[in-house]
Prior knowledge:
The protein has one helix at 6-14, and strands at 20-26, 29-36, 50-64, 67-71, 76-79, 85-101.
Amino acid sequence: MQHFTITSLQQAHAASDENYLEFLHVPSLSMGLYVLDAGAADPQQPHGEDEVYYVLSGSGILWVDGQEQFVEPGSIAHVAANVAHRFHSIQEQLQVLVFFAPAE
């Protein structure tokens, strides 16, 4: 078993210089904490895996292949593999748990 807390993930992320902190990687699944500051540009490109986002804090808009959805704490979104997507209009720092299946 592996166990994580949001607080420990936030602390580990704060100590890194990256937007994305992967904290779990097994063949069938990977997970990470993705953080974008208010007003930041989201540089991500489509992934070869299905992806689920769970917004922990902050708010903004998730653009997925021409569709837009406002996201805030508690929002959950699925993005299929190889579909263009990104966050924009980030109003306050966005912290998102990211689940990839299979592992990225």
